Fold:
Amino acid sequence: MRCILKIFRIYCAVFSAFLLPAALAQTSENGLTANPVFQTNCAKCHGKTAEGRHFAGPSLRSEKTRAMSEEDLRNMISNGKGHMPKFGAKLSPAEIDTLVQQIKAADQK
Structure:
């Protein structure tokens, strides 16, 4: 019994020292793709990884997206453009702002 307890303690120490920080870093990197608002409203066109889909929405990690201002992104999400539908009536301003911040953060990785 003591041997099992020692192994468990070692496992917990290794997990908290090495694996937990890596898991937390991966979660923050995937903020956009982990966002339920993104998954419900955006992923079907822009892909689950936000890399875009063939004949659907473009990549949200592209140079073109990187060049857009936050205001341009906010406006496009709210009012739509081309094949992009309007989400201003469906999403709250806070949800749109969160998406814009996460898109900009995803671009910089």
The two ends are 46 Å apart (CA to CA). Helices lie at 2-29, 31-34, 36-41, 43-46, 63-67, 70-79, 93-107. The domain at 30-107 is CATH 1.10.760.10 (Cytochrome Bc1 Complex; Chain D, domain 2). Residues 20-29 have pLDDT under 50 and may be disordered.
